[in-house]
Specification:
The complex is a heterodimer of chains A (422) and B (263). Chain A is an alpha/beta fold and 422 residues long. Helices cover 27% and strands 36% of the residues of chain A. Chain A folds into two domains: 244 residues, Rossmann fold (3-Layer(aba) Sandwich); 140 residues, Coagulation Factor XIII, Chain A, domain 1. Chain A has ten helices and 19 strands. In chain A, strands 5-6-7-3-8-9 form a six-stranded mixed beta sheet, with helices on both faces. In chain A, a hairpin with a 2-residue loop joins strand 8 and strand 9. In chain A, helix 3 packs across helix 4. Chain A is extended. Chain B has 263 residues and is an all-alpha fold. Chain B has one domain. Classes of the chains: A alpha/beta (422), B mainly alpha (263). Chains A and B meet through helix 1 and helix 3 of A and helix 2, helix 6 and helix 12 of B.
Chain lengths: 422, 263
Amino acid sequence: MLTISAKNVSKRYKIYPSRLVLLRHLLTLNGRSKGVTEHWALSGINLDISAGQSIGLIGRNASGKSTLLRIIAGIIHPTEGEIRVNGRISTVLDVQSGLDPRLTGRQNIFLKGAIHGLNRSQIQEKRRSIIDFSGLSEYINYPINTYSAGMIIRLGFSIAMHMEFDILLMDEVLSVGDVVFQRQCLARVREFLNQGKTIILATHSLGDVAAICQRVILLKDGRIHHDGETENVLKTYWQACEREQNQIPRHLHPFNPENVYGTDTQEIQICEVKFVDADGKERDTFWTHEPMTVVIRFKSRQPVKDPLFRVQFFRNEGLWVHGVNTDRVGFKAGVLSGEGEIVLEYERLNLLEGEYYVTVGIWPDEYRSFMTDIAYDCHQFSYVLRIRSKRKDGGGIVSNPFSWRLTRNNGRTVAEFARRRP
Amino acid sequence: MTMIRALEEHRHLIFTLSVHDFRSQYLGSVLGFFWSLIKPLVLIGVYALVFSWVVTPTTSGQGKPVNFGLYIFAGMLPWLAIQESLQRGTTVFVDQSHLIRHHAIPLYLIPFHIVLSATVSEIMALIVFLLIKGLIDQNITSYCVLIMALIPIQIIFCYGMALMVATLTVFLRDFSHLTTTILFVWFFTSPIVFPLESLPAYLQRIIWFNPLTGLIEIYRDLLLVGRLPAVPAVASFLFFTVLSMVVGLSFYYKSRKEIVDWV
C-alpha cells in the first residue's frame, strides 16, 4: 500500500524585489507583474513510498529537502503536481520544532497535543512519558525561550514521538542533541519501523542514514538526482561531494590562477599526465612509501628553448605541500620541438593519507613564472592523487623516516623501534 | 460545512490556543486578568466624563433619563471585542508562525482564537456592566439574556474581518498600522460615545452605512432600555455579518496556499 505518492510535484517561490512590487501585484491580482523573479525550490518530483519504509533524504544545502518534507506534511502547497498522503503525520521539522517560545515546556506539550486532536485527559496520560523521554525534569516548567537548542529539540522530538502517527518526518534534528539522546532516538525510530510505521529523515549525517534507512533519495537543485538502495545512493553522493571538494576556491591559490588561465601562450602544450607505479601501471591511488612516477607528455608547436617543467602537490585547503621544477636542479631541457615525454620519478612517496591535487605546468623560467604568471601551459589542480597510509606511518601530511629509542641513565638501550625501510 | 467540521475536529486546539492566549496576555502581572476589566472601565469613565460635557445627556427614547456612563458602557461592550479581534487579528498569522510552519492545520482556524479570547474579555465586562446597572437603577430586564443569542453572531462578524486583516498583514505588514488607524477613526464615527439622536438628520441616515450602528443599537435596546431591538437594526447587522464573512473568506481563499510562504 502506498503511503505517500507524489506526481510531478513542483514548488515555485516568487521573489519580489520590494514590497512595493508585491503591493502592485496584490492590487492587480492578475498574476502578471514586472520585476518578479521565480525560484523553483522543487521541480518534477515523482515519488512513491509504501508503508513501513524508512527513507533518507540527502542533498546539499538548499537542495529542496525541507521543502519536500513540508509538502509531504501538507504545510506547503505544491505549485504544480499532486501529492497524496495516507496516514497521520508527526513532524520535527527544525530546531524550534514548532514550539511556542513564549510558553513553558509543559504548556507546549498541551498545545502540540491539541494540534494532534488530543483532549486534555489524553495528553495528561502521555505527559509523564514525554517529560521522562525528553529528560528535561524540572525545566519543563520554564518557558521555551530559556532553553538551549539541545533542550528544545529534546522536547520537540519527545512530543513528536509520543503522538499517534503513521508517518514520522524529521529534518536535520538528531545532530543537535547529545550522543546519548541521539542513540535513544535511533533506538526509538527502529522500534517504530518494527511497528510498520513510515519514517522519512532528511539529514546531512550519512551515518544516521546508513543506520536507519533502507532507501535513500538524493536531491539536487530541487530534483531527484538518485533514488535507490542506501548503499548505492550514498556512494554516488559521496563521490559527488568529493568531486566538488576538488574544485579549490581560486582565491586560495597562491599564484592567482585566473591570470594563468588567461595568458597561457600554448607554445608547448601538455598532452597527457599519468601517475604510474613500479610495475608501469597507471593508478590514482598509492600507498605511503610506494615508488611513483609522473609521466608528462607534451607537444610543442614551435621550437622552445629550455622550458621549465613544474609539478606541485596541494591539499584541498590550498596548502602547497610539495613542488619541484627542472630549473632549480639545473636540468636543462634544451630546444624542444615536436612531441616528447618527461618523467618525474619518486623513489618513495613521503606523503600521508589524504587527497592531493596536482598542478603540472610548463613555464618559460622560474622567476618570470612567479612575477608574470605567464606559462606555456599549466594544468591547475587538474589531477587528484589519493594516498593511503598505515596507522604506524604517523599522522599529518608528511612521513619522515623515523625510529624510536629509549635509554636508561647508564646509557643502556632498553627499548628500540626502528622503521624498517620498505 | 468543511469549516464547521474543521472547527469540531480542532476544538481542542482552539480551546488551548484561547486559554494560552488569554493567560499569556497577563503573564507576569500581579492583577492578572483583572486588567482586562480595569482598562475598559477607566476608558469608559474618562469618556463618560468628557463627553457628558460635550454631548447633552440623552434620553432613552421614551423620555426616561439614562445614566450617561452606562450609556457609553453599553456601546463600548461590542466595541471592545471588535477592536481587540481586529487589532490582534492583524498579526495573528505572523505571531503563530511557529504553528503554521510546522503543522498542517487549516489556517482559517488561527484567527478564531483571537476572536474567542476577545469575546471572553467582553463577557467579563458585560458581567461588570450588569452588576453596576443593578446597583444604580435595580433594573435588569430579562432582555439582557438575549445578548447571549447576539454574541455568536457577533463572533462571526468579528471573525470575518479578523480573517481579512490577518491575511492582508501576512503579505504587507502595513495593514497592521492601517488597521490601528482605521479603528481610531471608526470608533469616533460610531454611535458609541454619542447618541444617534444627537446627530443632524442627514448624518443619522448616513451612519447606517457604519456596520456598528445596528449592533450598538441592539445592545442599547437590550441592555439599557429593555426592549426587543428594532427590525432595521437587526437586519443591518445580519447583513454586515454576512458581508464580513464573504469578504474575509474570499481574501483568505484567494491566498491561503501562499500564506505559509510569507509568515
